[in-house]
User: Fold Tetratricopeptide repeat protein from Thalassobacterium maritimum.
Amino acid sequence: MKFPPLTCYRSSLASLSRITATAMLALPLILSSLGCSQPSEESQVSKQDTLEAGLAALRVFDFEQSYETFQQLSASVQKEDEMWPLVTYSHAISAWLKTPTTAEGVAEAVRLLDLLSQEKPKSTYTASALLDLGRITEISNFRGDTPDVVTARRYYERVRTEFPNSEMAIRATLFLAQTYAQTLNPADIHKAIDLLDACLQDPANAAWVGLIAQYVGVLYEQYLDQPQKAIDPYMQAAQAGLARHADTDSVLWHIGVLAQRAGRDQLAAQAYAQIIRDYPRTVYRSVSQERLEQIQKEASKKEIDRR
Assistant:
């Protein structure tokens, strides 16, 4: 079972009922009795309930509450415990993201994420931990914090190497590509495109094609000023399914316009026809109809002239 960071946070104990934050405040006395090597069934349920409370706080981005919860829980959960990786990871994320962001909070997050990667190197949470270590290192988390893109790339590469063919590896590739693209150096942007193209070639990454191909199109059009090379990636993204489905009609319209400018009337016609067929209520329908008819007229005229 996967546990991606934050946006898709879910617990392996999701079947258990969650307790409210108010009820959670009554748990410290119970948790203080969990020091024995053979915890009772009642105490184990209490830990599970506390875990669920912490995850519930994370789901609504209440990082202060989740930090308090996981700080308490960490004191009672041993490394051999099945829930230790999730508790440690959640504790780290809470320390990093609670406001205000401080050097102490970031340092605590880094310590916990490093500990997790060392103690449980094969855990799914370690893949997420390495990815987050890359993000922490790549960005400026607080005033005076110095980003270190070179070190961030090493973390992303570790995810790609140690967790191949995984969702985290794809995310690491996207972050890695962005570190090159953001330099605005054409050679680096081509490195980013090469990384993304390699992802697109792998059939296992089919669910990500829409997002990755659209990103490649953006890099060609907006970063390299090569709109003609952006057309095919954009079309591939539209056919695979965009990350935001609601944008499909506007992206198809953009493809049509770019294709016409590049003299690829057949592809432009395909994009316009798809708009007319699949998005009858879009604002682009009437103009797509006009452009499609114009392309068809010009094609007929060329055919007549050849005769």
In short: Residues 1-40 have pLDDT under 50 and may be disordered. The longest helix spans residues 285-306.
